[in-house]
Specification:
4 domains; 5-stranded antiparallel beta sheet; 6-stranded mixed beta sheet; about 375 residues; 11 strands; Rossmann fold; OB fold (Dihydrolipoamide Acetyltransferase, E2P)
C-alpha cells in the first residue's frame, strides 16, 4: 500500500515538473521578446536616402534635407543603382541595406493604371481617327512581324490634338482595350505643379513602369504643360519644367519603336508645343480630333442615347440644335435630358427634354467656355 502511494506521488511530482518547465520556457521566450522590443525602442532609427550616383565601391547619397554625401558600402548589400533607395545610419551615414519597395516605381502613386473596357463601338463619328490609331498603335502591338518583314519602322507614338471634349482620351483607352494593353495615364500639368524637383525622376519611373507592364500605352494628357516651346530659363520652376521635358525626350528616344510600349500625347494647344517633341522618331504622327459634324453628331447621339427609354423623337431637329457641341457635351445633353424626364416623373424622354438640355449645356458653355468633360 505505501509503495502505491509513493508511485502516485512520484507521478504527480513528475507531471508538475514538466508543467513548470514548460511554463519556464514560455516565460523565457516572453522575456526575450520583450527585451528585443525594448532594444528596438532604444536603437537609433535608420534614415531613408536616395542613391544619386555610384563611384566604384562608394556611393553618393541624397539625404532628406537635400544634402549629398559620398559614403562607402559593402558588396554584401547587393548591386546599387542611381535612383535606388537605401537605409542608412543617422550618425555615420553607413548604408545598412537596400529598400527594395521604394526603388520599384514610386510613380505608381501618381498615375492612373488600368485595363480599360471601352471598345471602338463606344466611339461615334471618328472613323478616320480610329483608322489612323489602329494603323500606328494597334497594328504594331498586335502584328509587329508585318513591319519587320516589310522593313519599315512604325512611329513610337502619336499626338492627339483638338478642342476639349472631342474624344481624345476615349480613343486612347479604346486602343488600349483593343490591344489588351495596360493604360497608364498621367497629366502633364500635375506633374509640373505637384512634383517640383522630382519631375524628371518621375518621367523615368513612368517609362520603367510601362516597360514592366508591357504591352502598355502611356497617355500623357495636357502635354503642352511640359513640352511647350522653350524660352529663356529664369525661375527655378521653369528650369524644372525643362529638366522634365528633356527627360521625356530622352525616354522617347531610348526605346525601340517595336517595343510593346506606345506613347499617346494629348493637347488642346498644339500651336505652343516645342518642335523637338514632334520631330521624326518621336511623336511625329499628328491626329486631329475635331468637333463633330452633322454625321458625327448623329453617331455620337446614337451611342449615348441607345440605352435610354425614349419616346418617338424628331432626331433631325435635335441633331441640328446640337451643332457646335463636342462629343462630351452631346453626352452631357443626353444625361440632362434624362434628368428633365425624372423631375417630371416620366419614364420616357421626349423632344422637349432634349431641347431643354441643349439650351442648358449651351448656356453653361457660354458661361465658362467649355465643360471639357470626358476629354
Amino acid at each position: 500500500m505505501p509503495q502505491e502511494i509513493d508511485e502516485k506521488e512520484m507521478y504527480s511530482f513528475a507531471m508538475n515538473m514538466n508543467q513548470l518547465e514548460a511554463e519556464n520556457r514560455l516565460l523565457k521566450a516572453t522575456v526575450g521578446q520583450l527585451k528585443s522590443e525594448l532594444d528596438n525602442f532604444k536603437s537609433t532609427p535608420l534614415m531613408v536616402c536616395e542613391i544619386k550616383d555610384i563611384l566604384g565601391k562608394e556611393a553618393i547619397i541624397k539625404v532628406p534635407n537635400g544634402n549629398a554625401f559620398l559614403v562607402g558600402y559593402s558588396s554584401s548589400i547587393g548591386p546599387l543603382n542611381p535612383g535606388d533607395f537605401v537605409f542608412v545610419e543617422q550618425r555615420n551615414l553607413n548604408i545598412v541595406k537596400k529598400h527594395s519597395a521604394l526603388s520599384s516605381f514610386d510613380v505608381e502613386k501618381f498615375v492612373i493604371v488600368e485595363k480599360p473596357d471601352i471598345s471602338w463601338n463606344d466611339i461615334g463619328g471618328l472613323k478616320k481617327q480610329i483608322q489612323e490609331i489602329q494603323e500606328v498603335i494597334e497594328l504594331p502591338l498586335k502584328k509587329p512581324q508585318i513591319f519587320k518583314r516589310i522593313g519599315i519602322t512604325p512611329p513610337k507614338g502619336i499626338l492627339l490634338h483638338g478642342s476639349p471634349g472631342t474624344g481624345k482620351t476615349l480613343l486612347a483607352k479604346a486602343v488600349a482595350s483593343s490591344t489588351n494593353s495596360t493604360f497608364i495615364e498621367i497629366v502633364g500639368s500635375e506633374l509640373v505643379q505637384k512634383f517640383i524637383g522630382e519631375g524628371a525622376k518621375l518621367v523615368k519611373d513612368l517609362f520603367e513602369l510601362a516597360r514592366s507592364r508591357a504591352p502598355s500605352i502611356v497617355f500623357i494628357d495636357e502635354l503642352d504643360a511640359i513640352a511647350s516651346q522653350r524660352i529663356e530659363i529664369g525661375t527655378s520652376g521653369e528650369r524644372e519644367v525643362q529638366r522634365t521635358f528633356m527627360q521625356l525626350l530622352a525616354e522617347i528616344d531610348g526605346f525601340n519603336s517595336l517595343d510593346n510600349v506606345k506613347i499617346i500625347g494629348c493637347t488642346n494647344r498644339i500651336d505652343i508645343l516645342d518642335p523637338a517633341v514632334l520631330r521624326p522618331g518621336r511623336l511625329d504622327r499628328l491626329i486631329e480630333v475635331p468637333l463633330p459634324d452633322a454625321g458625327a453628331i448623329t453617331e455620337i447621339f446614337k451611342v449615348h442615347s441607345s440605352r435610354m427609354s425614349l419616346e418617338e423623337l424628331n432626331s433631325r431637329k435635335i441633331i441640328k440644335k446640337m451643332e457646335g457641341l463636342s462629343g462630351a457635351e452631346i453626352k452631357a445633353v443626353c444625361t440632362e435630358a434624362g434628368y428633365f424626364a425624372i423631375r417630371e416623373k416620366r419614364e420616357k424622354v421626349c423632344d422637349d427634354d432634349f431641347f431643354s438640355a441643349i439650351e442648358k449645356i449651351k448656356q453653361k458653355k457660354e458661361d465658362d467656355g467649355s465643360i471639357g468633360m470626358f476629354g
